[in-house]
Amino acid sequence: MALVSAKEIIEPAFRNGYAVGAFNTFDAETTQTIIEAATAISAPVMLLLGNWDWGLLDLETYSEIITYYARRAPIPVAWHLDHARSLDAVKDAVEAGYTSVMIDGSHLPFEENVAITQAAVALARPRGVGVEAELGGIGQAPEAGTEGAQTGFTDSEAARRFCRQTGVDMLAVSIGNAHGIYKVAPRLDIALLRQIRAATESTPLVLHGGSTTPPDQVRAAVKAGIAKVNVASELWVSYAKTMRQALGSDDDRFMPSFALRTVKAGLAEVVARWINLLGSEGKAARP
Q: What are the φ/ψ torsions at residue 48 (nearest 5 degrees)?
């Protein structure tokens, strides 16, 4: 199966009350592991790759790697550009074969966010590429949960106007979530999420900062309208932990290929656990 548009897997999730896991990748090994883990439990999946990662491998090489594994997978796979701040990054991603892009104008005034999102939609939609935008301020987990840190929540009426003016395919919302590993458990505002869902009607909603969010809050968020959840930090932590264990040995016969097998097993566990939590296991073929 070739890469598919994000809309092809997000819209069924939104209609049927589950969410798709979007997992950060940055090389062949992580790409292979994410797709294999999703395949093992027949789940649609999204690969996240931000343009800040493009310096590790050139974009053409990333495209070859991701399309190679996606073409051989029996499940639908979407390739998503995460948190692009410029239209140039969106254009490069679309030309490279991404099937989904995020233009992040959340740091801009409302009208400027609308304008850059409209421009991204105009760039991507003719190529069949879905567009995600963000409204509200999604911060970093080390500051989340502390007094005064939870600011910039998404306003439901602003979300209504934003979706109508931009025609965006997905909207990332700020409801108490944050990027990174939480030091203090977040308290997602599910009531606000329901208001946003009602205001934005048919627009699927996205939760950034999935890592270490309490499972009961994740389930509540999915039930209230979240159709895509981003997971990156838990993968990075797993990767670092298992690799440190391998490197910590005094054995001078260390072999990277053996270490990477352990790393991949840890990553696969994270991916499978999240897919099960989001309810997308077995949904690969669901219309």
A: -95, 130
Tell me: the pLDDT tens digits for 20-64? 999 999 899 999 999 999 999 999 999 999 988 888 889 999 999
Print the domain residue range for 55.
6-278
Residue 147 in any domain: the answer is yes
Three-state secondary structure readout of 178-222: EECCCCCCCCCCHHHHHHHHHHHCCCCEEECCCCCCCHHHHHHHH
What is the rounded CA–CA span in Å between residue 275 and residue 41?
8
Q: At what angle are helices 190-200 and 156-166 packed, to 10 degrees?
A: 30
Q: What is the average pLDDT value for the chain, to the nearest integer?
A: 92
Q: Number of structural domains, the chain? A: 1
Q: Give a yes or no: residue 157 inside a domain.
A: yes
- Given 53, 82, 92, 250, which residue is catalytic? 82
CA–CA separation, 226 and 206 (whole Å): 5
Place 237 in a pLDDT band, splitting at 50, 70 and 90: very high
Of 145, 155, 215, the C-alpha closest to 180 is 145
Residue 274 resides in a domain: yes
For 107-127, the pLDDT digits (tens) are: 999 999 999 999 999 999 999
Q: How far is C-alpha 262 from the chain's CA centre?
A: 24
Phi, psi of 130 (to 5 degrees): -75, 155
Concerning whether 27 is annotated as a catalytic residue, the answer is no
Coil, helix or strand at residue 239: helix
DSSP assignment of 116-134, as one string? HHHHHHHHHGGGT-EEEEE
Q: Does 151 have pLDDT greater than 60? A: no
pTM, rounded to two decimals? 0.93
CATH number at residue 141: 3.20.20.70
